[in-house]
Amino acid sequence: MAYEKRTGTMSAYFVEQLVKRNEPVMQFFLLPFMAPVSYICDGREASDVMTHRIKEFDRSRLFGDLFVAYMPHSSITFPTDNDWKYNRSLISETMLPRFLEASGAKQAYGAFKELVSLWQEKARLADDRAIDVAGDTRMAAMDAIWAMTFGSSIDTCKTAAAYFSKTPGLEPPTESSTPQLANLPSYPHPPIFESLMTLLHSSRIAMSVGHRAHWLAMSVLPSLRKAKKIRDKLVRERLSQTYARFASKTNGSKVAEKGVASAIDIAVQREITVAAKEGRLALNAKATEGIHNELCLFLAAGSAITADTISWGLKRLTAHQDVQAVLRAETIEKFQSFDMNGVPPIAEAIATTDLPQLDAFIEEVLRCHPLGNSNNAGPSLLSIPFPISDQNRSPTSLKSTSSKWDHHSDLETFRPDRWLIQDSSGSKHVKFDPSAYPMQTFGEGPRSCFGKKFAYLEMRIALTLILWNFELLPIPEELVDFDIVEELTRNARHVRLRLKRIS
Ligand code: HEM
């Protein structure tokens, strides 16, 4: 705990201990009355455990335990069994390209367009000073995942933008404030946003004192009870509205294909089809519970972690002005049919255009900033691996032929171009190669991140819209830091930007 206080991260402590002992595996007791936990600090062996040895190890219960108190029947809390398969099947179509390109992209686009409007207002008020935007990316990512889940908006960024549009100007800096940092007033959030963030932050209780204490807190703390009540009421209402909409269109076992615009549509439509096949009433208690929890899981797993990755990306764009210039040049070249002074590229274009420089940048941000607390952020992913002889490797790991585990000596450096290879069609063109280097930020195997495709799409859309609308100017030296705060994710302590509107 003392170490966590000093560095902001517990996982860095595990890595430091392993490096000191020159050993890639450590076993320890994390909490009283719990089985010991193994920490594997070798990407290749961890990959083998997650992909080929899932029956032997399965997903660690520690991960699901973070969420079990406020969405107990969601797939993240299950071992890899039939319940997990059933819940997964309800939402599996949300990651198909036809849904992501037709609906997911538009919903994410709508959310990040509102973020741009909010920042236009904030940039006006900041008047060349930096602003801290960590909370803003979380608002936009929550707006995006809510829209993708329910096909409607909770307008978190829009509400904030409307608030700032009525703010005439800022007080001059006081003696105690940092003059280069604009001190913007705090602003109102919609109650549902507050509730979802309150629940998410409550996972910290499970992290520090275990999931039983988290259960208890959920039933006795008024703030947590209220947050859960608000969330559950809205989800329940949307579930019955969606069911009514589809049930009225159902003709025997044939469910209408049209009008599927969100994850809830997909889940309800699937449940109606399965129930008809099984000759039972749709949305019985078990199915309702499953869908309800799975939708809540989307909101929890699909918000803060994507937002925090985008935040790290923005910090990198500010610190690496040369990289920012390359990405902006690519955006201008690839979307030249859109008017630089007016219309930004549309959602579908951003989702489908070949953008190797942007994809390489996103991959490098993900590699350098693995946000999950179970991710190895040390040797073999971010620095040279421990020397491990073949006789100490598992038989399945020995069969791995992936060249990404070859020796790489420059893993500590932030270098997006490591993911680019020459295109065979001509020396000027480059291609993005996602298998060039080791990366496990989304985990691997059957229990890897379910929402990874939507996350990539969101990051593409968010960064394109930001690069299109703003220059991220360098910030004063005293405002620069890459400090980590380990909450549910390993997020950046500050996300300070100096935004210059491109008009
Ligand atoms: C940059 C953004 C994201 C990162 C870095 C990330 C990372 C992760 C990681 C590390 C895991 C655990 C993998 C394991 O244990 O092996 C996970 C699980 C999961 N993620 Fe993500 N995630 C992101 C965005 C999303 C989004 C947008 C969604 C929803 C649309 C999502 C839904 C899920 C779900 C449902 C699981 C649980 C999978 C299971 O238990 O089978 N994630 N994610």
Automatic annotation (TrEMBL):
Needed cofactors: heme
PROSITE patterns: CYTOCHROME_P450 (PS00086)
Entry keyword set: Heme, Iron, Metal-binding, Monooxygenase, Oxidoreductase
Gene3D superfamilies per the UniProt record, alphabetical: Cytochrome P450
UniProt cross-references to SUPFAM superfamilies, sorted A to Z: Cytochrome P450
InterPro entries: Cyt_P450, Cyt_P450_CS, Cyt_P450_E_grp-IV, Cyt_P450_sf, Cytochrome_P450_monoxygenase
Family: Belongs to the cytochrome P450 family.
Record protein name field: Cytochrome P450
Annotated source species: Zasmidium cellare
Lineage: Eukaryota, Fungi, Dikarya, Ascomycota, Pezizomycotina
